[in-house]
Amino acid sequence: SFLLNVISHPIFQRGEARVSFIENHPELFNLRKTNDRSTRALRYLAEVIVNGNPEVKFKDPTKVFRQPVVPAFDPYAAYPKGSKDLLRDMGPEKFTQWVRDQKQVLYTDTTFRDGHQSLLATRVRTKDMLAVAEGFAKSHPELFSMEVWGGATFDVTMRFLHENPWKRLQAFREAMPNMLLQMLFRGSNAVGYSAYPDNLIEEFVEKSWENGIDVFRIFDSLNWVEAMKVSIRAVRERTTGIAEAAICYTGDILDPNQHKYTLQYYLDMARQLEDEGAHMLAIKDMAGLLKPLAAEKLVTELKKAVNIPIHLHTHDTAGIQAATYLKAIDAGVDIVDCALGALSGLTSQPNFNSVVAMMKGHERECPVDQHSLNAYSNYWEDVREWYYPFESGMKASSAEVYENEIPGGQYSNLKPQAIALGLGDKFETLKKNYSVANQLFGDIVKVTPSSKVVGDMALFMTSNNLTAQDVLSRGESLSFPESVKELMKGILGQPYGGFPKEVQDVVLKGDEPLTGRPNEHLAPINFDEDFAKFQAKYPNNEGFLDYLSFQMYPKVYDEYYKAREQYGEVSIIPTPAFLYGLKENEEIMIPIDEGKNILVRLLFMSEADDQGMRTITFELNGQSRQVKVRDKS
Ligand code: 3PY
Ligand code: ZN
Q1: What pLDDT is attached to residue 31?
Q2: Phi then psi for 215, rounded to 5 degrees?
Q3: pTM for the complete prediction?
Q4: DSSP state of 389
Q5: What is the ipTM of this complex?
Q6: 117 CA distance to ligand 2 centroid (A)?
Q7: Are the C-beta atoms of 342 and 384 separated by less than 8 Å?
């Protein structure tokens, strides 16, 4: 069609085209680009129409979606000044001091990261968040930050959404220039599940900052401060962003039988993190175990122990975390994490809209336009419907979390995992085994990636009908999951109090465990050389950031790259079509390039021919286009 464009151009038709003709008319290349994009988008749609989106395990043909309404905003209005402007003016030290010294409680909105990670298995696509990002930033500059990146989003955007996570970040940065953007950073595991060389961690921090991150919430999945130092230092030395170091909260400090994760334990850790240079402290209550009275105690004591602001994160799995926030706010916590109504509650964060209502008349109230929050929540209520296959099925909050301690972000994934392994009807046993596995490991902190290992062990025990006793007595003859071997070997670092020797021995079977930082044993990467190799292997890569994605997840990147070669930029396809394809005669608009849309209608799908190929006939901007797809059924 590029050739067609050339041939049909009037200059060419007049016979006046010279060699320079193509050079002087770069729009022909744009045409080629948009044609190419259209072709690939049709190829993707045809594939989903014939074979379905492999991530959609069940499709409800009766489902009717409402059209989500984006709350109105003025695209020409300037952005009101927000936290990002303050940070830019003051620098991280002064700014965080201001956070601590001013009186109002501040808010972080987690809707774009932990909210959907915890309720919809991280599946929300960039397009659906971006639709409301600018309006939200213009309406709510009073927020402390937007949590938008890190955690599981990096992996899932590539693996399941076939999107570039860096482009997502850049798009958020552009849409929300007045607000602090925050990410969740797994310390020496960055945004992955294993240990990476220190210079990769440093590079990753720097590039995240360059592309838009201001606040780095850094944690270690075993609360091992030693493993957090490199990332804290990288934020301090390579960026002008904020290093927010987290203590992961587990157990119950008010339980008289709790001898391991005591108040003293957390105070000590907080002081160490402050000494390491943290600008702020996070209490990361990933499973929602911090009850109101414990929060009151913990925050009161932390306030005395450290001079940096305290940022509280929780999950509302048990349903009482708004009370935890109120107690924590009374005790002086500086910032709390909330998710917009329709993506809040259960394994997600407490309801932002309701917390704002709760704070009306409180001496630390930070006024937020409730009506506007409700409008954004309504948007999400409708968008959430599109993602129905990824709902966890949890219908009510559950105090069982105090027994199993499963993090919110993991809970929404554990059930589909169990079903995939044929253990769907053993979910109750699986949850029990989660706490049995935790005890076998010596009662460790459970958060990605350590929580994944406890989950793997629980799945292993459930599918093999093993008790804790079986693991100890028959362990020598059992072949444990790879992740369990790595944990016991020390690949994720050292837990407080060490691993139980007996379990370590049966798992490692003579292999010597590490004692130091696992990253210390990893050779630094030679970026020039390695990047060149990457470019040779993936010639159509999108540069150094793509290389960093590859470093985090080599296999996932490989598949993502192939999908992109085949289908192009699928992030432009509207979500219902991305997930469910099109019905006959359904028409959608795809923004194919800046200011350019195409209209696509499905006309019909043929029967499979004797090669198993179906022909899908579309109408693209009024012209008929056919795509052949193999029917895999
Ligand atoms: C993650 O690391 O993805 C988490 O959300 C941990 O809570
Ligand atoms: Zn969380």
Answers
A1: 77
A2: -115, 120
A3: 0.94
A4: G
A5: 0.96
A6: 8
A7: yes
